[in-house]
Each structure stands twice: as structure tokens, then as C-alpha cells.
Amino acid sequence: MKTWMRRTGVGLGLAGILAAGMPHAWAQPMGLPSMGAVSSSELSPAVERTLGQAIMEQGRQDPTYIGDLDINQYLTALGRKLAAHAPQALAQDITVFAVRDPSINAFALPGGYIGVHSGLVVGAQSESELAGVLAHEIGHVMQRHIARGIAQQSQGTGIMVASLVGALLAALAGQGDLAMGVATFGQAAAIDRQLGFSRGAEQEADRAGLQMMRQAGFDPQGMLAMFRRLMNASRLNEGTGGGYASTHPLSIQRLSDIENRIEGQPAAAVTPDPEFWFVRARLALIQARSHADRQRLKQTLRSEARDLSGVRQAAAYYGLASLGKAEGDLASARAQLAQAQSVQAAAPQLDMLAIQLAGAQGAAAAVDVSAAAWKRWPDSQGVADERARALQKAGQDAAAADFLQAATRQWPETPEFQKLLATSLERLGREVEAHEAMASYFEQTGALPTAVEHLQQARTLSKDFYAQSRLDTRIRALRERLDNQRALLEPFKK
User: Fold this and answer.
1) Does this entry carry the keyword Zinc (predicted)?
2) Angle between the 330-343 and 348-359 helix axes, to the nearest 10 degrees?
3) pLDDT at 436 over 90
């Protein structure tokens, strides 16, 4: 396999960004006008998206970023379900991703990206509680609080924006280090304590979030329950810093406002998605890094499997099966999976685990199990991922390439399928197409200079006039995008 994964620059990564204060940095300065028309001095949606893509390109390299397709598909679908009922149109599509961190936190980045700590999902006692926090974050995105805060900084000292934009411009030229700009940005935010969300901004996000929850079919009580839990946790940890309450100040006034808006409303007719409990179990396992953590999780799951019923019991058995597989106890994993399947007839996560366990018996068995699973779950990215990997492990790269080409059409916003496709194409000797697939992967993840490099390599390898013409067109289009991004960002460089 050739250097498909070459990158430009060295990334600080999402953990470093968060440690540098990113959730604080992308906040609304105190006193910012609320609920008004968007000011002409605010960042345009195009600039905001460019900044968000740049941060995400670096963040995806960090080991705390959870690139699990199943988890992020669920979270993004939940976010977009809420956003579809926003009281105002959103300038950006919502994309939600998970970060491995046991603290209960969430944060919004420019461009409609929302990060969710694994601890938030694991700590939620219902899907409505998780939806309450996501709806609040979407409220900030809807009100363009992030864009307003950045614009106000650029009109003041501009240290944060100048550092980030300067580094980004260097990265777009294929040189420099975006991470240095991000670190400088975070350091400036740590010094400037006025960059917290204002009370007015927080209440706006609460109110918009409640409306989204109610109309999307979630229980608004979930927001109240989660915020009460967060407020109690912040009191217990007072003085330690961090956590959701430090970036989104909770107050009696805010909680009273939520209570008043919920009071007298008819009870919500909630139909929770059973996948919430399986995703929650998956994140609990990902979050449990040490042997002691896994032992505590095992005890919790055993208690839930014994004391609960329905989908929650099935999710507990699923968690135990996943733990068994991780520890190499395949017999236990299969027994626990069978228990989960006896309680919950079907769930894509159960079939994903079944494919993995079948792979331990042989590549052919995994292919057969994945074929049946794909028929049951044709809209699951997680099942599609397992199906493609099963075909590749069985040496069926021609079938894998056909399957993955269909997957890239079905999910054009999911770059991971392009990378898997490149692997099978390269094994088949279709190097030009492999480079094209990797170019698409890097284009979708925001690494445009690297995407251009792959297209140029494909252009050099190709002997077909029509293919060369197609590649020339793509190279020109990407270079125009690079030029446009530079033009968008240049006015914000100090």
C-alpha cells in the first residue's frame, strides 16, 4: 500500500484543542445582542464552515476522537432531527461527533459541528436527556453565537482570529502548522475571561432547545433533569474547573425559566429510539480504558442485565458480550450476545457484533453473517462498514469495491468509505481509481492540498485521455476552492 495517508502539517488534535480552552474560545462574549438580525460584520456561513472544517481536519487525528461510524451516525441523526424543528433556519448543517472523555460535556465549533463527550451519553438516563443538551447546543448554532463572538474578537484585538486564520492560510498553501494557530487561539481565550456565554445567550439556547425537543417528539423534562444533574455535579466539584457548567453557566434562574416553560404543557408522547441504549453501551466500553474501569463497567452491566427488562436489559447483555470479545473470551461473548438477541429481536449493533464474532471463526463465516445483516439494516453505516471489512478480510476485494462504491453514493458525506474503497482498488491494481478515492477522502475531511496531490498522482499514472481530462477538471475545481477559501479568510488576518 502506498502513502495514501499523507497529510499536510502537524495537528495538535482535538484533545489539545479542548485542553487549550476551545469550548470557551468559541463562545459568545458578554453583552452581545441577542435574537436580532445577523450583523453584516459577522462571519459569513462560508468562512464559519471553513474554520470548522479546518479544526475538524486536525481533530480527527487525535486519539480521543471517536471515528465510529455507528455512533456518529446516530448522534448526527439525533442532532438533525432536532435541528429540523429549530424556530429559525440554520445557516449550517448539523454534524455531531463523539470524543472519548468521561466528563459530562458538549461543545459547538464553527460550521455546525457539535462535539459530545462520551461521558455525557453514558451519564444520560434517557434519550431525551441527551437530546436536551444537543438541542441547547443547536440553539447556540441557530443564534450564530459562535460567529458573533469570533467577529467581535476580530473587531477588537483580533488575537484569536488572526492566529487561527494565519495558520489556516499557511496550511491551505501546503505549509505551516494549523495547530500552532489553534493553540495560540486557546491561550488567548484562557487569558480573556470575558469570553463566556452570556446569561441571555444561554437562556436563548434553552428556549430554542425546548421548542425543538417538544416538536421533535422528545420529553422537555429531559433537559431539566440533565441540567439539574449537571448543576449538582458542578457543586460537588466546585473549584476543580472544567465540565459543562464551566462553559455553560447553570443558574437557579435558568432552571426556573425552563421549569416555567414546561409547567402546564401536556405530557410528551415519547417514542425513544432503542439504538440510544446500544450506543450508550458502546461508548461506555470505549470510555473504559483501564482494567479497573472495565471491571466496574462489567459489574454495572451485570446488575442492569439482572434488574432491568426490555431494550435496556438487551443493551446490558450487548455490553457484556462486547466486553467478552475485547477480553478475548469469545465463548462468553457469544453467550451474552445470544441473551441480548433473545430479549431484543433485532438491532444493528447486535448484528455488527455478530459479524465480528463470526470473523473469529473464519472470514467466510463473517461474509455470510454480514450479508444477512446488510439485508436487515440497509441504512446502517456501522453494518456497511463491517460488511466491507468482512469482504476485504476474505480477499473478496472486487465485491468489496462494488459494495463500497455503492456506499459512497449512499453516504456522500461519510469519507471513511472512500478510504476503504481505496484499499480494495489498490489491491486490485486499479491505482488511478485508488488515488481518486483517497482524493475524495481528503477532500471530504478538509485536507484539500493533500487531495490535489492524490489527483496529480492519478493524472500521472493514467494513460486514458478521458480519465486525464476528468482528473484535470477535478484538480482545477479543488484549486479554485483553495483560492476561494484564501479569499474568504484573508480579510480576517491581522
Assistant:
1) yes
2) 150
3) yes
Type of residue at 314: A
Is there a contact between 437 and 419 (Cβ–Cβ < 8 Å)? yes
Q: How many domains does the chain divide into?
A: 1
- Answer yes or no: is 396 within a domain: no
- Reported as a single tens digit per residue, the pLDDT across 456-475 is 999 999 999 999 999 999 99
Contact (Cβ atoms closer than 8 angstroms) between residue 472 and residue 459:
yes
C-alpha cell at 92: 449550517
All residues at 6 or more sequence positions from 308 whose CB lies less than 8 Å from its CB, including other chains: 316
Answer yes or no: are the C-beta atoms of 208 and 39 closer than 8 Å.
Answer: no
Q: What residues make up the domain containing 100?
A: 14-262
Residue 97 in domain: yes
How far, in Å, are 49, 135, 218, 452 from residue 94 at the CA level? 11, 11, 18, 27
Residue 80 has pLDDT above 90, yes or no: yes
Distance CA 144, CA 239 (A): 30
99 phi, psi to nearest 5 deg: -125, 135
Whether 329 maps to a domain, the answer reads: no
The contacts of residue 338 (CB under 8 Å, 6+ apart) are none
Kindly state whether residue 187 falls inside one of the protein's structural domains: yes
**Do the beta carbons of residue 160 and residue 185 sit within 8 Å?**
yes
Instruction: Find where cell 499514472 sits.
Output: 461
Amino acid identity at 358: A
Residue 313 phi/psi, 5-degree rounding, is -65, -45
